[in-house]
Amino acid sequence: MNRSLQRFISCAALALVLVLSVGSFSLLAKAANAGEPQGIPALREIYQDYFEIGAAISGTTLMTHEELLGKHFSSLTAENEMKPDGLQRAEGRFLFHIADRMVNYALDNGMKVRGHTLVWHAQTPDWFFKDKDGNRIDQKDVITDEDRQLVIERLENHIETVMTRYAGKVYAWDVVNEAISDDGRYILRQDSPWFRILGEDFIEIAFRKAHEVDPTAKLFYNDYNIERVYKRGRTIQMLKSLLDKGVPIHGVGIQGHWSVNDSIEEVEQAIKMYADLGLEIHITELDIGIKDVSEASLARQAEYYRKVFAMFKKYSDVITSVTLWGISDQATWRPNDNPLLFDKNKEPKPAFWAIVDTDKSWEENKALYLGL
Ligand code: XIL
Question: Which of 58, 60, 77, 80 for a ligand 1 pocket mutation test, highest count of atoms within 8 Å of Cβ?
């Protein structure tokens, strides 16, 4: 072998050694990276095997919170824009532009939409309840058949127009909202104009119409405190009697406007009771209040969120959706209670980290993902 050939071979060998060692070094480096911080995880991925994770949004937060919404949530609810006063402020004049924008955003981003809400005593314009002379029917001493017919027509027409527009787009509707009385002497809320005019029939009429208009939609009865002992017995009684009559109700929405002092056990019992009726359960408006944002309060809130999500996961065969009533404490209907997962600067709070893995503390989760 001549000299230059020898030199060539030893150069090639050296190059091979170099290439191999650089390669294995980068493999080693990669292995080390696997244990390194990965940044903030997406809730919708964490919960994909359990239930939809949703947020209520407004026309404004759809823009200001778009990044968080798109990253973390798989379901969307309009906080006000699909209520009767949002869609039909004047009779026959439907305004769909904001609701349409939300629905289109959701569909473009692979999210589901919960429709909220068709029949409610609040946020419903007066005209629904006025006779042709402009008098409030619900305040009359004598309500005629003609009055009742007029109100039924309006109720059915509202449901028909709204549900037809969103058929195949809104997969679940809160058909009736907050009909149960807080007063133990009554099953139904007595101050609802729907109840005063139509009696208990308004609920059945609404669900039957909704099912007729979009037979593929999941139809929910939605209310607050129906997990609490004082109210759940009456709610179950009402739902049972509707189900016995064959009224198409598919699920119950537990709103979940709670505070860190509320019993989680009571919620768990209620979930079992509603599941026993054969109903699907959505947590529809979750927010958990604290009175200040001291470290101790934030930690307490985190622990409450951790426990309640651990419980929800246990029942994920019946709980198919959990919606937060907002995204950050910058835009919430409970501005003094700081009840959401992101703070006023849209940064994740301890409560966010707590639900990332409910088997660990929020501090552990945060350290694992951010390496702090
Ligand atoms: C609230 C909205 O968050 C507020 O912006 C609005 O001023 C009043 O309604 N139960 C419901 C929701 O079913 O529609 C309510 O939303 C909160 C209580």
Answer: 80
Rounded to an integer, what distance in angstroms lies between the CA atom of residue 118 and that of residue 207? 10
Q: pLDDT over 90 for what percent of the chain?
A: 90
Type and span of the H or E element at 221? strand 218-223
CATH classification for the domain delimited by 41-370, as one of 3.30.450.20, 3.40.190.10, 3.40.50.2000, 3.20.20.80: 3.20.20.80
For residue 266, CA distances in Å to 147, 152, 231 come to: 42, 37, 12
Take atom 13 of ligand 1 and give the residue whose Cα is closest: 177
Would you list the DSSP string of 131-198?
-TTS-BGGG-SS--HHHHHHHHHHHHHHHHHHHHHTTTT--EEEEEES-B-SSTT-SB-TT-HHHHHH
Per-domain residue ranges for the chain?
41-370
Burial, 9: exposed, middle or buried (Cβ in 10 Å; 0-12, 13-18, 19+)?
A: exposed
- Output the pTM of the full model: 0.91
DSSP label at residue 127: G
pLDDT single digits (tens) 36-95 = 788 999 999 999 999 999 999 999 999 999 999 999 999 999 999 999 999 999 999 999
CA of 305 to the centre of ligand 1 (A): 21
- How many Å separate Cα 96 from the centre of its chain? 21
What pLDDT score was predicted for residue 372?
Answer: 75
| Contact (CB, 8 A) for 52 and 322 | yes
> Ligand 1 centre from 114 Cα, in Å?
14
Residues paired with residue 144 on neighbouring β-strands, in sequence order = none
* Residue 301 and residue 351 in contact, taking contact as beta carbons nearer than 8 Å: yes
Nearest CA to ligand 1 atom 9: 80
Predicted confidence (pLDDT) at residue 13 exceeds the cutoff of 70:
no
Does residue 66 have an active-site annotation?
Answer: no
CA 167 vs CA 53, 58, 130, 213: distances in Å: 21, 21, 29, 8
Active site residue 79: no
Nearest Cα residue to 235 out of 291, 262, 273, 284: 273
